Amino acid sequence: MSRGKHRARTGAAAGVASAAAAASRIVAVDALRGAAICAMIAYHFSFDLNWFGVFRADFNRDPLWLSLRALIVTSFLLLVGVSLVLARRARISPHRYWRRIALVACCALLVTGGSYFVFPRTFISFGILHCIALSSVLAWPLVRHPRIALFAGIGAVGVGTQVRLPAFDAPWLQWVGLMTHKPATEDYVPLLPWLGVVCIGIAVGAWLDARDYLPLQGVARRAPEWLNWLGRHSLLLYMVHQPLLLGALRVLLP
User: Fold this and answer.
1) Res 137: pLDDT
2) Cα–Cα distance between 31 and 27 in angstroms, integer?
3) pTM for the whole structure
4) Residue 141's domain spans which residues?
5) Whole-angstrom distance, CA of residue 156 vs CA of residue 141
6) What secondary structure does DSSP assign to the chain, as a single string?
7) First vs last C-alpha separation in the chain
8) pLDDT for position 253
9) How many domains does the chain have?
10) Does 9 reside within a domain?
11) Is the Cβ–Cβ distance between 80 and 201 less than 8 Å?
12) Parts of the chain with a pLDDT under 70
């Protein structure tokens, strides 16, 4: 075989690999994740303004703020389930899969440490990143079985929202989510019911995948590129947005 033909075939193979890698990302999913990031930043900015005394709101009891928080968390965790389906579609290697889980887990530990520095009495012991890391491991086997994932998700949501057992009030079991009262923490996203939302996201992702994500075409067409960029870098933005917001407010506010 001549060098020219070899290079042509190598280039074609590289092109196919690049196209496959690009196809593994769905623009609309990135855009939806970017929208969730925007909503989260707006929510945390409002929380920070309340913390600095600019305005007063009860983020722990006001139905409006509680509903907004639940909507944002639900959006993220549904997209986690959809992303697991995309990872399987892209035939992600075990190395890349566990590297991503390890990255999220490390970020979760950094959030715990940072929140302890700022809120020593209400630091984050099991927040959304902790939940994403653990749920991604537990839900991964269900990616090949979306119907089971759907029913398991509905069951997990039902148990997590309806069952309350005093045995789970122990501090070392608070991450499960069946305790009788919300612990004193700045962010609490327990395994139940939120693992169920990830499982439902797997079912949604499988439904979309079977239709080649055509139901999301409208989102892909209308989403600006900056929103897609936010979605592609959601973990980085999650880690840096609060330090930047708190730092800016500390400088700007008297």
Assistant:
1) 97
2) 6
3) 0.87
4) 26-252
5) 16
6) --HHHHHHHHHHHHHHHHHHHHHTS-HHHHHHHHHHHHHHHHHHHHHHHHHTTSS---TTT-HHHHHHHHHHHHHHHHHHHHHHHHHHHTT--HHHHHHHHHHHHHHHHHHHHHHHHH-TTS--SB-HHHHHHHHHHHHGGGGG-HHHHHHHHHHHHHHHHH---GGGGSGGGTTTS--SS--S-S-B--HHHHHHHHHHHHHHHHHHHHTTTGGGHHHHHH--HHHHHHHHTHHHHHHHHHHHHHHHHHHH--
7) 74
8) 85
9) 1
10) no
11) yes
12) 1-24
pLDDT digits (tens, 9 = 90+) for 182-218: 888 989 999 999 999 999 999 999 999 999 999 999 9
pLDDT at 184: 87
- Does residue 20 lie in a domain region? no
Residue 90 within a domain: yes
Tell me if 1 is assigned to some domain.
Answer: no
User: What is the structure's pLDDT at 7?
Assistant: 42
